Amino acid sequence: MAIAKDTGPNTEETELPIRTKQPRQQLTKGMEHMRAYVIVPETPLSTGEDAYGVPATYEPVRKPTTTMASDENPHKRSDPFQFGTRYLGEGDDIFAHNAWDHVEVDAQYTDFIEQQTSFQRENRVSDFDKQRFNDKPEKWWDKFYSNNQANFFKDRKWLAQEFPVLGEVTKEDYGPVTVLEVGAGA
After folding, report:
1. Which residues does 97 contact at the CB level (< 8 Å), separation at least 6?
2. Residue 115, domain extent
3. What does pTM read for this prediction?
4. Domain count across the chain
């Protein structure tokens, strides 16, 4: 542990410990005694040979992160893919898919949507801000990406999966195209 000296105007010279940054713990100190029960070691605990039909080591059964949705629900992603044809079913991994086109919302959420829509109508962007942001949008996107590069954006290749037509229309010889970006949450 490093030591710093405090030499303020009204203090005697004292040594203060400096805490070095530690890697983030997966388990709290109170739960550390359970580590052997909740993690699978990278290397087998035993390197002995199988005996009497009992394996010396075992590989735990690992469930895949998502089930094969195509077996359970024919409307899930399949190629060629048409956007908006996947349905969220009971028991589906809600984080494995991005399209929520056919999810029915309850009355409470409908009220929330209406409140947000009316708030947006009542609080429009000023003409000054419209011009400022629309004149050089690349400037503002570059600023946004530079501020959020390390902690926010990762290339998840989502656009190519959800909108395969973008692969075609972005080729040099395709010609002019208009793309409407609705935005997140629309």
Report:
1. 69, 76, 77, 86, 88
2. 72-154
3. 0.29
4. 1
